Amino acid sequence: MQFAKDSFYVALSERLTQINPARTVAINGISRSAIIVSENEVINAAPSLENAFLITWGAAEVCGGFEGATQPLLKLECSILYGTSGSRDDASDRGRTITELDSELLQMCSPPCAEKCDYTNSETIALNSRIFWTPPQITSLVANSDMDKVSAMTKQDAPVFHAAKLTVFFYPEVT
Question: Domains of the chain: which residue ranges?
Fold first, then answer.
């Protein structure tokens, strides 16, 4: 399962570098593509979620119809959180910037497949299978539906956040 997660991360990271090489994040003094996997980061690193994509994974499940199969098709729910305060001091370009992030995410997720590889050694090893995923379903995040909360979210200096959900499918590694 870890190979599927790693392969998804690497695919999106490489694609983001092609789409927007300037979209980077610095963690512990190292600059890299702005794709962050929550379970892989040092807790005290606390990278900013603004102008970066944070991946979190759900639990793995066997897909319907594959129960009892020797090599069942597995699925992992994936959430990607991202947001922005914009690039201007008055935050008046938040809408344009979140739209740019939406576009980058959709481009990174297409085509919806990648080679599954083992990245645990210095040399990448192809595992002779692929991962594939559903299109991301993007939603706006609003803290609460109360009007006071919505009013607070529309302040000029408040960041705008979106969340995308998708499902990654893969076959387990042969043991």
Answer: 2-170
Alpha-carbon distance 31 to 26, whole Å?
4
Task: Please list, in sequence order, all residues whose beta carbon lies within 8 angstroms of the beta carbon of residue 43, skipping any fewer than 6 positions away.
Answer: none
Torsion of CA 93, 100, 21, 90, to 10 degrees: 10
* Coil/strand/helix, residue 32: strand
Domain 2-170 class, CATH top level: alpha beta
Q: Is the peptide bond before 111 cis (omega within 30 degrees of 0)?
A: yes
Q: How many residues does the chain have?
A: 175
pLDDT at 3: 96
- Spatial CA neighbour of 38 closest among 61, 58, 17, 18: 58
β partners of residue 139: 163
Q: Which of the residues in the chain have pLDDT under 50?
A: 145-151, 153
User: What is the per-residue pLDDT across 15-27, written as a single tens digit (0 to 9) for each?
Assistant: 999 999 999 998 8
